[in-house]
Specification:
Blueprint (H helix, E strand, L loop, with lengths): L3 E3 L3 E4 L6 H16 L12 H17 L3 E7 L2 E15 L5 E8 L8 H15 L5 E6 L4 H9 L3 E12 L2 E11 L2
Parallel strand pairs: 5-6
Antiparallel strand pairs: 1-2, 2-3, 3-4, 4-5, 6-8, 7-8
Helix pairs in contact: 1-2
Length: about 180
């Protein structure tokens, strides 16, 4: 497992706390979009210190190989984060599975970047992490995310009722999965 991968147009990097300012900028410029589909954030989420702690935690999880978050950059602008793809809750033993999460800067939608990044991350998950099954949970009204996950080869399995507390309400999520080809 490497800290850095690339595709035709993108760079995928595992970051540590030094990049807290860049990550904070990414979240601040997209907070209205991201927050409608995610759990309530801690009060200090939009602070450099909080992002530094999270990045260091995720870096440690990467080293233990029980989670990985790739930060996505365009090759033509390697200083600006345009998205992120993560594999969380990696479970080993007989399962070899995890859940995928992703988010992309609104200015980079509809250019194929998310699809390109997710396809590369799936390749990494199956070949380098030796995972067998990856799931995605998506709110039914998030049609853009549904189209994206289906385009990258995931199949719908059903609905997880009351799956996550979003904006103070337990929300159903559609369950998608992909298994190692």
């Amino acid at each position: 497992m490497k800290f850095f991968y690339e595709t035709e147009r993108l760079l995928l990097k595992v970051l540590d706390g030094k990049y807290a300012g860049d990550v904070l900028k990414f979240y601040l410029s997209n907070c209205e979009i991201f927050e409608q589909y995610e759990a309530e954030r801690p009060e200090n989420f939009y602070s450099r210190e909080y992002q530094q702690r999270i990045l260091n935690y995720e870096y440690s999880a990467f080293l233990r190989q029980n989670g990985v978050r790739f930060w996505i950059y365009e090759k033509t602008d390697p200083a600006r984060i345009i998205g992120t793809v993560c594999f969380r809750d990696i479970t080993r033993t007989v399962y070899q599975c995890c859940e995928i999460g992703y988010k992309f800067d609104k200015h980079f939608w509809h250019h194929g970047y998310a699809c390109e990044a997710i396809l590369k991350c799936l390749e990494i998950a199956f070949s380098d992490l030796h995972l067998h099954r990856i799931t995605a949970h998506i709110m039914p009204e998030n049609t853009a995310s549904i189209r994206l996950i289906e385009r990258t080869g995931f199949d719908r399995e059903g609905t997880a009722r009351g799956y996550a507390l979003i904006r103070g309400t337990w929300q159903d999520h559609l369950v998608y999965s992909i298994v190692q080809p």
